[in-house]
Amino acid sequence: MLCGIDEAGRGPIAGPLVVAGAIINEKVEGLNDSKQLSEKKREKLFDEIKKKCSYHIVFTDAKTLDEKGLSTCLKNSITEIMEKLKNEASEFLMDGNTSFGISNLQYKIKADATIQEVSAASILAKVSRDRYMCEIASDYPNYSFEKHKGYGTKAHIEAIKTHGRSLEHRFSFKVKGIDDQNQATLF
């Protein structure tokens, strides 16, 4: 059995990194790269994937990303998924261009659009992260996390300029227009 692995949240300036692994046990129709699907379609597929797949989802918070670095956090998340699903999967395939030095991990660019198991993992990771950002939005009303999900939109950068970074922000990620002016402060 193949376990597909993908992540969401590698590039945002706020929120967690979310990595998911999925093994398809029953056919799921309509799978694709999560970025190619509407939010409504992702939400529908998310529930179906959870019913028809074995899966594991790993969240890494912004503070840990700052302390350990993105590559280490990705590697640790992938390793956790492989450990949790090792009794069900004989192969592990990650979307992307590296194995992060993990033996027995295959990788393929654009696997999230071409390999069903990786598509399922892509949807699990994206929907889990998006839901988290919507859930915390009321705790940080100045940032509108429910709208941009932590990505560096113009409105988000303006909010950081006005209010500083929150505890959900990644301090190690340099933001053009802020860090070059030394205006980033802890909120």
TrEMBL record:
One example of a Gene Ontology biological process annotation: mismatch repair
One GO cellular component term: ribonuclease H2 complex
Pfam families given in the database record: RNase_HII
One MF annotation (Gene Ontology) recorded for this entry: RNA binding
CDD domains associated with the record: RNase_HII_bacteria_HII_like
Residues the record lists as binding a divalent metal cation: D6, E7, D95
Function: Endonuclease that specifically degrades the RNA of RNA-DNA hybrids.
Entry protein name: Ribonuclease HII
The organism of origin for this protein: Halarcobacter bivalviorum
